Amino acid sequence: MQAALITGAGAVELRDFPDPTPAEGGVVVDIAFCGICGTDIHAFQSGQPYNPAICGHEWCGTISAVGGGVSSLHEGDRVVVAVAPACGRCAACLAGQADRCFTSFASATGRDRMAPPHGGFAPRIAVSADRVVPTDPGLDDEQAAQVEPLTVAFHGVRHSRLRLGDTAVIQGAGPIGLGTMQWVRAGGAGTVVVIEPNEARRELALELGAHHVVEPGAPADSLVRELTHGLGADVVYECVGRPFAIQAAVDLARRGGSMCLIGLADSDASIVPATWLVKEITVTSSLAYFREEFEMAMGMIADGRVRVEPMHSCTVGLDGLADALADLGSGRSEQTKVLVNPNWRS
Questions:
Q1: CATH number given to 2-146+308-340
Q2: Threshold 0.85, pTM exceeds
Q3: Angstrom distance (rounded) from CA 185 to CA 78
């Protein structure tokens, strides 16, 4: 079996692995699709060491083998990749902080004891049974492959200070930004503004429910001032994942407003502390998700409150992964969400 790994700057290798078998307490999943995440793109561009277990971590598929000790899952079950539940035994759990469970966090970052030697850019993967959640029957495979990133956005919005009627600004209309925008709408924001340089993505944001779209820079500053009568946004969601965007998000917020950091920048950011202080900005940040949020997110995708189908713009095979990563990282891509089908060649 071959799996694709990002091995350096601009480098993707197809490496041979033995067909996986389920460990005690584990399952093997035949992968239907695996999405390309922003962290995959950053790793491809930077060449910094990248944990192979998370090289492709947005997958869905069907269980093809079940290890001993697993009774809640069966061969033929459709599943999406998730995060292990709180263990109840680590220091965080014993301190009453199960939402910060060390074991659950290790599984989210591909450092759990059963972490595989490759990620979801492969036809099959062996993982702990705790790492998968049954797919909502209302979702097809292409929708299910987008559950993981949509749950990232769901967690960020759920963790933020959004209130009914708020003016919310989302920086970036990539998959995470578009997901965040839809959760913000579902959460009751009164006015939703998406800031995005790419015209096609701005149009997609409007299709998915944004009230206003605008280019970054002076046009965005002017629009937010106009919509808020000079006050600034109640909450700004940073979904670009670039260092410059962090201060830009705070600049758009009102005094007493908040900024939610979802995009993961891969280098240090320069900020203006006086602005943060004078505005008394509240900052929330969000990484990954909680176990229970997967079923919440799937249910709202299945019932149509959040739409993922328009975001899926392209599917490639394993042999098309390198070109897709290069295109997505170019800043000129016409793609939004690219899925990889590891079972065919593009």
A1: 3.90.180.10
A2: yes
A3: 29
